[in-house]
Amino acid sequence: MKQIIKNQEPENFREWKQLANDDWQPSWTGMPGDIKRSLHQALISEQGGICCYCGRRIDSGESHIEHFRPRGRNSFPELEIVYTNLLASCQRDVQPGAPLHCGKKKGKWFDERLTISPLNAECERRFRFGSNGPIFPLVEGDDGARQTIEHLGLDIDKLRAMRKSAIEGVISELDALSDQDLGRLIAGFTERDNSGEFPEFCMPIVSVLRELQVAA
């Protein structure tokens, strides 16, 4: 999970909410399509083009707007159009029988004590990854990390395989690197490219590279 630094909300989203009056209140279900589309794109851009939970590459056709604190009855309806509660998660249209993960798997699950937020600076230090793609709590006994992995489906076979492929594509080229070069490579995977995007699965890759750096 990569920490997300929130930007200012899109201007047209803010202006639409400011139209609220005694006879009308803005709501998620009443949001015009053009405003929702620009909101969605803004979320993708501020996340560097990766899913808020698993870190896979996303675009507007392969993602949906995620409410970190769920919306709807008995949830957090007062936060349904609060920008700081909105993220972009992978899986938009899911084929029948396809495994769910990230926002689609999370659904209405939320526990103030346990659910790890990608907005929290500590989120990057709560998990570690194996070179074959599995994800674990960094600290044994971290129930928040364990339950977040479970409720978001972050360790399903599909994501393991995708992470393994991404990691292998990097570590296969490490033999010729000096320690200094390895340090620069790790730093590069924590930064945006010239298009403002983070590398896909950047945090799993960084996790494995750091372990190799320590072991060297």
Give an overview in words:
With 216 residues, the protein is mainly alpha-helical. It has one domain. The chain is 34% helix and 7% strand. It has 7 helices and 4 strands. It has helices at 11-17, 33-46, 102-106, 143-151, 157-171, 179-188, 202-215, and strands spanning 63-67, 86-90, 127-129, 135-137. The strands form 2 sheets. A two-stranded antiparallel ribbon has the order 1-2. A two-stranded antiparallel sheet has the order 3-4. The two termini are 25 Å apart. The mean pLDDT is 94.
Question: What's the layout of helices and strands?
Answer:
Layout: H1 11-17, H2 33-46, E1 63-67, E2 86-90, H3 102-106, E3 127-129, E4 135-137, H4 143-151, H5 157-171, H6 179-188, H7 202-215
Antiparallel strand pairs: 1-2, 3-4
Short description:
The chain is built from 7 helices and 4 strands. The protein is mostly helical and 216 residues long.
Key terms:
single chain; 216 residues; 7% strand; globular
The profile of the biggest β sheet is: 2 strands, antiparallel
Average predicted local confidence, pLDDT: 94
Quote the beta fraction.
5-15%
Helix content: 25-40%
Q: Order of strands side by side in the largest beta sheet? A: 1-2
Oligomer: single chain
Q: What is the radius of gyration? A: 18 Å
- Please indicate the count of domains: 1
> Count of helices?
7
> What is the string of helix and strand elements?
HHEEHEEHHHH
The number of strands is: 4
Distance between the termini: 25 Å
Structural class estimated from helices and strands: mainly alpha
Contiguous low-pLDDT stretches (5 residues minimum) are none
Principal-axes geometry comes out as globular
